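Work through what follows:
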Amino acid sequence: MKKDVKYYDLYINGEWTKCTDGAYFPVENPANEEITGYAADAGSEDVERALDAATEAQSRWQALSPFQRASYLYDLMNKLEARREFFADLLCREQGKTYRDALGEVDDTIAYMKFAADSAGRIKGDILASPVPGRKMMIERVPYGVVLALCAWNYPLALVGRKLGPALVTGNTLIIKPHELTPLATAEFMNLVDEAGFPPGVVNLITGRGIQAGDQLARSPRTKLISLTGSVAAGQAVYKAASVNITGLILELGGKAPFIVLEDADLEKAAQAAVVSRFSNCGQVCICSDMIFVQESVKDEFTALLQAKVKEITVGDPLDPGTQMGPKASRGDVEKIDGIVQRSLSQGARALTGGKPLTEGAFSKGFWYPATILTDVKPDMDAAREETFGPILPVLGIKDFDEAVGLCNAGPYGLAAYLFTGNHSIIMEASGRLEVGTVFINQPIDGHTHGFHSGHKLSGLGGEDGEYGLEGYMQKRTLYMDLS
């Protein structure tokens, strides 16, 4: 049954408000290209109103104790839990992930906020002795002020929770700018913010197409910290914009995570983990395995296991309980990854599965690409160099672990890597040699709210999650005190 199409306005200073020129833009369902809803297309005046509101509210919000601030988050979590199925359904229709994965995203959103709220009593500093009698030194952590949260389209709700929780509990106010492909779940989430009674201006929503609104927010001297999840290109643009005012940055960017399989690995376990780690959310996860490095002595055996498992993946309607992989988020994404595949095929690679868009029958509408394995891939081919961010998995043969490390570290990315081996010596040296922020050893893709998620090299700056992520939303201030 077709759902009613809603129009979503901006949320500024505790009120729903239309954008200055009254413009909206459509948001498509990637499974069938139907309009899921319309979002307000903010202009320059709207951005300034949001900055005014967040700036005005910040000192009063900071004046509350962390426990008072956390109480708002607990209320917000309860409201989201009560509407878990509603948000999961919207995520399917807006972003295209399966219903099971969408439920998981709602749960992750709650978990991110819960960790932040539970951390209210763990915001700490240091008291240091002074070399001068009667004096003390104290280092405390204080909020930045106004935080800009720029969220990617692959996890439109979870990324809001990931940034909102730590930003607010540490005393910052927030302006959220979701990606134009997926602004609706964030807009519905703001209804819950409103119901939870957050003081006006503490949380604000700006939606819009293009880069104008985000660039204006990033360049404003009133924005004190920017937390971006997005592509390397987006991170570079924000880095430049932030340089105008030396604005603080947390950048979680792209990656090209290698999945290293050595000859002594449990090949069955590794193949299953490779499928989960590549094709979850249609490959649209920044730390997904993006290429296989498998030792030549077991390459054929491992590739056969991988191929058999990939052929079992069911692609279809995200709301169908039997679906294991939904569509890509947009037509442009399909064209991008197909371009990588076709160029790689022309360079000598072979497609063992998939290899071209799905366009017939049930796939005549929507943005569909099948789970694709490419073999005979060489390090200089496009599939081995470019981040695909889709269901494409190139397989490269390697001589040994040293060669895998060399290939991994030679690239510009440093977000994640996977290693499957039974050799404990190699496991111990992996963390010291692989130039990435996260290493998965003998297990598939994972992540926990009390861990830490960060990228090295072009893959990011700072990080999110856990105690270290919480610290990223605070500055340090040193006090020298004469107590005599």
